[in-house]
């Protein structure tokens, strides 16, 4: 029996990418993990008001969710969670950027969640990474983000909303979903969003919501590293295909 949405334990959701969709931005991208859609827009690099005082460039991130990105309408504007995730995305991206080459410059990254089905921060990081590359920001590598975790007793990659909310005790009272207990096992879910620099096999963020044994944590992080290479190749191919299409025809 497969997962709620039919995937295998080590299978990521379908990825879709759209590049440079905001013509007036330095770089922009939409990254989709299944039904989680994130738009990122980059403004910069641009001179800061106190540029002489900056020893390196300044990266700023603003994360937000559109009011109808979730089933129950979200109040417009940033709340505490959005401010926290803005900081997390900034931390995930910063190690990849050669900010020391951007003295006195500011890079603003705006991340908007268009539709949410879990993994909004990871989709947002991937969209932002693409947008930064398209804006010509000097980077060591694309930053790749994905959620991994333990649902019940099973390690899985790229959790969806049903898996994030998994609770075997509650499912026992649901005739349609109780059959999934056989696949996932007893217990609740532990969600572990991570961001990775694949070329260095380095984690730029690791977050953990829930409980997990040390051995299972190692398995989960190794799975994330393995899948980050797969996601990077998809993102890299999307960028290469874009620039391939811009080549002038031979005369």
The mean pLDDT is 91
Provide the succession of SSEs.
EEEEHEHEEHHHEEH
Distance between the ends: 57 Å
| Count of structural domains | 1
Record field, number of beta strands: 9
The CATH architecture category equals 2-Layer Sandwich
**CATH fold topology:** Ribosomal Protein S5, domain 2
CATH superfamily: GHMP Kinase, N-terminal domain
**Residue fraction in strands:** 25-35%
Query: Are there runs of 5+ residues with pLDDT below 50, and where?
Result: none
Could you say which structural class the secondary elements and strand pairing correspond to? alpha+beta
Reading off the top of the CATH hierarchy, the class is best stated as Alpha Beta
Helix segment tally: 6
**Gyration radius, in Å:** 19 Å
Q: What order do the strands of the largest sheet run in, or round the barrel if closed?
A: 1-2-3-5-4
Question: Shape from CA axes?
Answer: globular
Notes on the protein architecture:
The protein is globular, with a radius of gyration of 19 Å. Strand 6 (144-151) and strand 7 form a beta hairpin. It contains six helices and nine strands. The protein has helices spanning 80-93, 120-134, 161-164, 168-171, 181-184, 214-245, and strands at residues 15-19, 27-33, 36-47, 58-65, 105-115, 144-151, 154-157, 189-197, 202-206. The model has no long low-confidence stretch (mean pLDDT 91). The chain has a five-stranded mixed beta sheet. A four-stranded antiparallel beta sheet has the order 7-6-8-9. With 251 residues, it is α+β, with helices and mostly antiparallel strands. The protein has one domain (15-245): Ribosomal Protein S5, domain 2 (2-Layer Sandwich), CATH 3.30.230.70.
């Amino acid at each position: 029996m497969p997962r709620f949405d039919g995937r295998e334990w080590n299978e990521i959701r379908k990825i879709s990418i759209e590049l440079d969709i905001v013509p007036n931005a330095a770089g922009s991208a939409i990254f989709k993990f299944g039904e989680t859609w994130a738009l990122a827009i980059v403004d910069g690099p641009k001179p800061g008001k106190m540029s002489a005082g900056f020893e390196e460039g300044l990266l700023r991130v603003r994360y937000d969710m559109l009011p109808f990105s979730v089933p129950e309408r979200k109040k417009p504007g940033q709340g505490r969670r959005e401010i926290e995730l803005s900081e997390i995305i900034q931390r995930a991206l910063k190690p990849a950027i050669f900010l020391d080459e951007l003295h006195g410059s500011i890079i603003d990254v705006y991340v908007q969640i268009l539709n949410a089905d879990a993994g909004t921060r990871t989709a947002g990081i991937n969209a932002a990474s693409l947008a930064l590359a398209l804006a010509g920001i000097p980077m060591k590598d694309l930053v790749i983000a994905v959620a991994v975790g333990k649902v019940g007793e099973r390690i899985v990659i790229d959790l969806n909303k049903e898996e994030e909310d998994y609770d075997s005790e509650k499912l026992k009272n649901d005739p349609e979903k109780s059959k999934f207990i056989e696949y996932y096992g007893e217990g609740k879910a532990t969600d572990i969003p991570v961001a990775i620099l694949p070329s260095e096999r380095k984690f730029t963020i690791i977050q953990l919501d829930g409980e997990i044994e040390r051995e299972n944590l190692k398995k989960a992080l190794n799975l994330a590293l393995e899948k980050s290479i797969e996601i990077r190749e998809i993102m890299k191919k999307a960028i290469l295909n874009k620039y391939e299409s811009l080549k002038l025809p031979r005369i």
